[in-house]
Design a protein that fits this description.
Strands 4-1-5-8-6-7 form a six-stranded mixed sheet, sandwiched between helices. It has a single domain (10-196), classed as Aminopeptidase (3-Layer(aba) Sandwich), CATH 3.40.630. The chain has helices spanning 41-51, 69-81, 119-134, 152-155, 172-178, 181-196, and strands at 10-15, 20-21, 24-25, 57-59, 86-94, 110-113, 146-148, 161-168. The longest helix has 16 residues, at 119-134. By secondary structure, the chain is α/β, with parallel strands linked by helices. Strand 6 (110-113), helix 3 and strand 7 (146-148) form a beta-alpha-beta unit.
């Protein structure tokens, strides 16, 4: 469900999956086969989220603890219920085989909106796709990177929402650019600016 005017004034950033407490990653799975040189998804997601902070961008995942999905959805809907004009961007990194081995044929970013999403959700997805395509270090992705899927975090919130799988942690090709979290964050920031203009 989408509420709010076409111009969104505040963006909520959801960093999916896990966190570090005293330097230890606590969520099983969600990783590259070898860490290092690979990455844990929750660590990656939170690092990108921190780089996105701006006056009109709020990080919902600032806690080091792994906040349950249901809790994150309730938090977003509570903000909407209080009359705030928001949109949600959920940050993720993809994996095949839950990090058991490298999969060189599983590559590329994907951007999801829910089935039947409002036009603003679709505009957010297009804007992120355009910025990723123009980024110098992010290689070409698969065909049709913008997809529909009813992930709970984007289906059950009552505001425009997208979920970004920034690339595959289990692909050495994708891992080479996933390590450049600043460029990924800059792409998302430019996409936000693009749709606000």
């Amino acid at each position: 469900m989408c509420k709010g005017t076409p111009k969104m004034r505040t963006f909520l950033i959801d960093a999916g999956h896990g966190g570090e407490i005293l330097g230890e990653y606590l969520t099983p799975g969600k990783r590259s086969p070898e860490v290092p040189p690979g990455i844990y998804e929750g660590v990656f997601n939170r690092q990108v989220a921190r780089l996105l902070l701006r006056p009109n961008i709020i990080n919902l995942s600032a806690s080091p603890f792994d906040t349950p999905l249901r809790t994150r959805i309730k938090a977003v809907n509570k903000v909407v219920a209080r009359g705030h004009n928001v949109a949600l961007i959920s940050i993720h990194a993809n994996a095949k085989g839950f990090g058991r081995k490298w999969y060189e044929n599983a590559i590329g970013y994907r951007i999801f909106h829910a089935r039947g999403a409002c036009e603003f959700s679709k505009a957010m997805a297009r804007a992120v796709d355009l910025e990723f395509m123009e980024a110098p270090s992010i290689p070409a992705t698969v065909d049709n990177p913008i997809r529909e899927k009813n992930f709970a975090i984007i289906k059950k919130v009552k505001c425009p929402a997208i979920l970004i799988e920034c690339g595959f942690m289990t692909s050495k090709r994708d891992l080479s650019y996933l390590k450049n979290k600043m460029e990924i964050a800059q792409c998302i920031l430019r996409a936000i600016k693009r749709i606000e203009e």
